[in-house]
Amino acid sequence: MHLYLVQHGDALPKDEDPNRPLSEKGRQDVGRMAAFLARTRPSISRVVHSGKGRAIQTALAFAETMGPGRILEEAIEGLAPDDSPTIVADVVNGWTEDTMLVGHLPHLSGLAGLLLTGEADETIVYFQPGTVLCLEHGENGHGWSVTWAVRPELLGG
Known about the structure:
4 helices; globular; six-stranded mixed sheet; Rossmann fold
């Protein structure tokens, strides 16, 4: 099972727009990342987002670019910036379908650390807006490992 952790794209500053939608740069970065991922033909069955506008916009871009058949859903809890990563970690360990989670910092960094090392305070990946981290859950309960990570800057633009 693969778990894709995605930090929402670059957002407008709060003083420019309190809702903090994606900036033009954010839309472009997320578009390139979504196109890159679509070329790999991932078997992602659902894209779960935090419910915040910038995360919804990012999730929609990925779901639409990867093609039909992806379920887009809002997390009931656990994906907000300051939520405890334990909430999501307890749930994803039981999943069997490849899933994308679109969220925020510091939550995503803590979730990655918790899944990979058992410690939410361990920084495993330096997320930037638009970063995608792919984790794979080992068979027979062997835990999580990093498959790959890509930042928008690596795709140019």
